[in-house]
Structure formats: structure tokens, C-alpha cells
Amino acid sequence: MPLIHANGVELHYHLQGKGTSVIFVHPPCIASRVFTYVRNDLSQDHRTLLFDFRGHGRSASSATPITIPLLAEDIRQLMDVLDIPSAYLCGYSLGSMVVLHALLTYPQRFRGGILLGGLAEVNTVKTRAKINAFLAAGTLRAQRFMSFPIAWANADNYQTYKRLRSETRSGDRAKWMEYMRSGLHYSVKDRLEDIRQPVLLICGERDREYKAYMRELQQGLPNDSSAFMPGVRHILPAFGAGPVSELIRGWVDAQEERSSDAEETLREGHEPDRLDFPYWEQQDGDQPHTHL
Q: What is the number of other CB atoms lying within 10 angstroms of the CB of residue 220?
């Protein structure tokens, strides 16, 4: 993956495929390689962008402290450099906070969001304890301790684990900690109703911790669709890659069809009709949900 200069830092990226653009947003410590399976599938008929945030993977570090708003701005400026006028954002775990902030801050650039095990704020004892444990390890300079469980949890085989751990250990521990601290204190929960773009929520059916966060997102977002992945906990990019790719593909294509139909209807001087995503049944206040 080549390097490109955006927002004052050299970012490691890979642009692949043609069609509607989908940009993948990784959580702290681990980098964009975690999306490899989903990207490889989706790039067959969509334009996909993987990149490592500053201080992660093979991107350069920087003196500027990482915050959720800064990472959203990094994405916007990277899109400018790569001449991507608009895109869908796909965020995993704490990366979903960057997606939500970007949807709010740059609504003209982002057509919608996909959250894999997403959350609007860290508000449970379990999640806080895990983040604080990693922060404590970082304070003790235990980068090897921090990289092992993350790489192991996100790998479906030993070779993938080795690649993930190598990528993870090449990052800047200080930037990992800044990203985690920013996520720990960031909240967009009270602003979810202001996100007008469509948002797809995907959660592992066995992911009890993030099911609670998913309910908060469902209650706050005005235009969401949601799905549970059978037999999967939180590690959706590795253990639910095939079904996740198909969900994203169908949902993105449905949003594009809806947008195209609405534009044509408006040109003809009529009110646009609702176009529902065919994989979902409407329930509970017109909020779409499904099990795969």
C-alpha cells in the first residue's frame, strides 16, 4: 500500500475497485488490515479505500494529538487528495465513533454509514474496564502485551494473526493511547437524531456487550437499518466477513437506487416514494431489523 500526504501526515492507503466508494475506518491499536476479507469481497463491484490512521499500521505518526474530530478530518482531507467526492463510511468498534462524527460534521461528503459493532459513547463498566486496561498497559510501555490480544482476537488463522500483529506492532503506542482516550471520553449519543444519512447497524448475535450499544443507536438514529450476525460475537470483519460483505453490498446498492429514484422523481416534479431495502421487514416505529 502506498503513502500519501493528507492533513499534515503521511498515510498508508490502498484504493481498489470501481463503483460507489466505501471507506473503512479501523479502531485503535489495530490497523486497516483487519478489513482485508470484507474489502476483497466488496471491491469486486465497489470502490474501496483502506488506510491506516496516523500512528497506526504503516502510517506516519505526528505531534498532533489524536482526537475523534481530527480522525474525521483526516478522512475528509484524504478524500480530497484522492479525488473522492463522496463515500459511505464503514467503521468497526470504536472506529464507529469517527464515522458518526464525520456524518454529523461533513454531511455533504458522506452518503451514509455502516457500523460493525458500533457505539455512540462508552457507557458500560465492561467496556470502560477493557479500555482502561489497555491504557494502563500503554503507560507501562507494554506494546507487545497490547498488540497480542487484539491481533489474536481479530484473526481467524495463525497466518492472519502474524500479519495483524506485525502491522499492529509497527504503530506508535502513544497514538494508540490517544485514540483510545478520545473514544473513552467522546459522546455523540445526544446528537444521533441530527444524523440524517442512512446508517446500517450490524452486530454479532452473541455480542452481548455491543447489543446494548446497538439498542441506543436504534433509538437515536432517525434513518437506520439493523441486522444480527448469527453465531458471531464482536469480531465481525474476521468471523462474519462473507455475510457482512453481502449485507453492505445490498444495503449500499439499495441506498443508491433510492437516491437515483428520488432525483428522477424530483426532476419530474413529483414527491419521492419510499424505497425500502428488500432484505428488511419494517417493525417498531418503522425501524428496519432482521436476522440473517
A: 18
Closest CA to 148 of 259, 30, 231: 30
For residue 186, give every residue at least 6 positions away whose Cβ sits within 8 Å of its Cβ, in sequence order, or none. Answer: 67, 68, 97, 101, 121, 122
- Mind listing the pLDDT tens digit for each residue in 133-171? 888 876 666 555 566 677 767 777 777 777 777 777 778
Residue 27 makes CB contacts below 8 A (sequence gap 6+) with 91, 92, 93, 94, 95, 179, 183
pLDDT tens digits for range 234-275:
999 999 999 999 999 999 999 999 877 655 554 556 544 443
Domains of the chain by range and CATH?
Answer: 3-291 (3.40.50.1820)
d(CA 33, CA 100): 21
The answer to whether 203 touches 210, Cβ cutoff 8 Å, is: yes
Alpha helices in 154-189 (DSSP H): 158-169, 173-185
CB 26 within 8 A of CB 92: yes
The dihedral through the CA atoms of 277, 203, 180, 6 has a sign that is: negative
Distance CA 11, CA 3 (A): 5
Residue 22's nearest CA partner among 99, 106, 97 is: 99
Write phi, then psi, for 114 (nearest 5 degrees). Answer: -125, 120
